[in-house]
């Protein structure tokens, strides 16, 4: 989604948590990102859906490798490790087998099978009782959305075309890494924390 400048002129003060020290000033650039959801349609061919899923996994892994390489080349090895960890999740045999089972045994489409398995994984993270693990739900969301975007042929890139403060409900680590740094004066999100992977990359 493209960012649009705010037309509001009133001054509003909003409390929040600081992800990085400093002061930023500029016009608000609001990004509204719609979450992708899989259509609940039955699979016409389990074999074809499985092939589509495997191809989508390969595409996302290539993209994650490229992002990790670029971030590491810019002198940020810690941030690059975040994307490498995301890639490893796509190689988790337990997760991949759950998706395969949903496709072949429940006649789910590749997108619906992936969404259902990721929903279960996110719920296990939320109910873990561990704050660090609960914060990683954002990473699961990103991985889910990245693969759904390939399967559904959708664009989830976050763009801002002019200088300002980027305002968003939330940003994924990958979207944050791909922002045009020449335009970004600051970032403000409704969700997240100072220890989230998005904050670390920002």
Structure description:
Strand 3 (164-168), helix 7 (173-177) and strand 4 form a beta-alpha-beta unit. The chain has a four-stranded mixed β-sheet with strand order 1-2-3-4, with no helix packed on it. Helix content is 50%, strand content 8%. It has eight helices and four strands. The chain has 202 residues and is α/β, with parallel strands linked by helices. Helix 3 packs across helix 4 (110-126). The mean pLDDT is 81.
- Helical content (DSSP H or I, runs of 4+): 40-55%
Number of strands: 4
Percentage of residues in strands: 5-15%
Q: Widest sheet: strand order?
A: 1-2-3-4
Query: What is the residue-mean pLDDT, rounded to a whole number?
Result: 81
Q: C-alpha Rg, in Å?
A: 18 Å
Distance between the termini: 19 Å
Q: Give the number of helices.
A: 8
Low-confidence segments: none
**Largest sheet geometry:** 4 strands, mixed
Structural class: alpha/beta
Q: What are the secondary-structure elements, in order, as H or E?
A: EEHHHHHHEHEH
* Shape verdict: elongated
Offer a quick outline of the entry.
The chain has 202 residues and is α/β, with parallel strands linked by helices. The protein contains 8 helices and 4 strands; from the N terminus they run ββααααααβαβα. The radius of gyration is 18 Å and the shape is elongated.
Observed structural traits:
202 residues; alpha/beta; four-stranded mixed sheet; 8 helices; elongated
Q: What is the element layout, followed by pairings?
A:
Elements: E1 4-5, E2 28-31, H1 46-73, H2 77-89, H3 93-105, H4 110-126, H5 131-135, H6 137-151, E3 164-168, H7 173-177, E4 184-189, H8 197-201
Parallel strand pairs: 2-3, 3-4
Antiparallel strand pairs: 1-2
């Amino acid at each position: 989604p493209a960012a649009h400048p705010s037309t509001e002129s009133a001054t509003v003060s909003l409390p929040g948590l600081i992800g990085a020290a400093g002061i930023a000033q500029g016009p608000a650039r609001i990004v509204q990102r719609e979450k992708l959801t899989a259509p609940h349609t039955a699979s016409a061919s389990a074999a074809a859906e499985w092939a589509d899923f495997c191809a989508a996994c390969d595409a996302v892994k290539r993209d994650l490798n490229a992002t990790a390489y670029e971030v590491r080349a810019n002198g940020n090895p810690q941030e690059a490790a975040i994307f490498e960890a995301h890639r490893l999740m796509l190689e988790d045999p337990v997760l991949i087998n759950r998706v395969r089972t949903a496709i072949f045994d429940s006649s789910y489409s590749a997108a619906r099978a992936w969404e259902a398995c990721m929903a279960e994984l996110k719920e296990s993270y939320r109910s873990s009782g561990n704050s660090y693990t609960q914060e990683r739900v954002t990473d699961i969301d990103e991985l889910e959305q990245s693969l759904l975007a390939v399967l559904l042929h959708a664009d989830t890139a976050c763009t801002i075309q002019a200088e300002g403060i980027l305002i968003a409900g939330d940003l994924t680590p990958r979207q944050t890494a791909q922002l045009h740094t020449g335009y970004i004066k600051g970032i403000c999100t409704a969700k997240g924390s100072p220890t989230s992977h998005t904050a670390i990359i920002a």
